[in-house]
């Protein structure tokens, strides 16, 4: 099983830790692309700060985030599961999982990253600012970099298992499954239902996805097809509706009325 999570825009900044070592990260086939994106981001941050902030989509009160990117090569690192923060990661609580669930997280969870492509929760990374919709000078859209790189890595990692895709729209553009992988892909959408009306609400969506992944990791079962995943989630107390199978996989709608 490969559980794909989006990153968080907000990130913790470690006070101490080793410097970034690209060769030590999981998914070593991505090292060349990581080095390319890292170089472009650091070069941008060393240039005109106003222009860098504009390229990175930063507001006037966020200009200090350019400094994070300027010192990426020498900044302290920490485990990715402590760097990424926010509603989804608070609800998931990777660092508070039981020992068995945490071992499963290490081998099953992958976080999509604009800078690193994919990282495991245990990978040592620095805090950075690079959103998935940014186009870097000399590189172009980061989504394009990873779209041309991630498929081979996902296939090698996945084998005959199931992709549980919980990425947001921006990060879904980094990798789209080819038709031959569709039977192995479950794309999870969270719908908030009130008085018979359903809609996607950001806070409910993120919190529910975090809780859902936590429950899967604690449960430990390894469903290999979308319908089997829906059955496991049903056993765990979720209301799940299985959509039609398409060339991109099968959508599972998780319907909630409260967090």
Automatic annotation (TrEMBL):
It comes from Nocardioides bigeumensis. NCBIfam families: PRK02101.2-3. This is Peroxide stress protein YaaA. InterPro entries: YaaA.
């Amino acid at each position: 099983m490969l559980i794909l999570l989006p990153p968080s825009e907000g990130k913790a900044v470690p006070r101490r830790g080793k410097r970034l070592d690209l060769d030590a990260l999981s998914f070593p086939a991505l090292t060349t692309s990581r080095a390319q994106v890292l170089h472009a981001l650091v070069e941008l941050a060393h240039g005109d700060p106003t222009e860098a902030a504009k390229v990175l989509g930063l507001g006037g009160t966020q200009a200090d985030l350019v400094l994070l990117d300027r010192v990426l090569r020498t900044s302290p690192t920490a485990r990715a599961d402590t760097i990424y923060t926010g509603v989804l990661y608070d609800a998931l609580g990777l660092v508070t999982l039981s020992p068995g669930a945490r071992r499963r997280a290490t081998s099953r969870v992958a976080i999509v990253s604009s800078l690193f492509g994919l990282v495991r929760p245990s990978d040592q990374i620095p805090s950075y600012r690079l959103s998935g919709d940014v186009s870097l000078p000399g590189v172009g859209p980061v989504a394009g970099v990873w779209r041309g790189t991630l498929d081979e890595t996902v296939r090698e990692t996945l084998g005959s298992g199931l992709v549980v895709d919980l990425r947001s729209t921006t990060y879904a553009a980094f990798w789209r499954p080819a038709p031959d992988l569709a039977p192995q892909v479950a794309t999870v959408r969270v719908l908030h239902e009130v008085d018979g009306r359903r809609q996607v609400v950001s806070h409910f969506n993120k919190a529910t996805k975090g809780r859902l992944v936590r429950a899967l990791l604690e449960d430990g079962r390894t469903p290999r097809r979308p319908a089997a995943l829906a059955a496991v989630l049903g056993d765990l107390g979720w209301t799940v509706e299985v959509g039609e199978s398409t060339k991109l996989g099968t959508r599972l709608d998780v319907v909630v009325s409260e967090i």
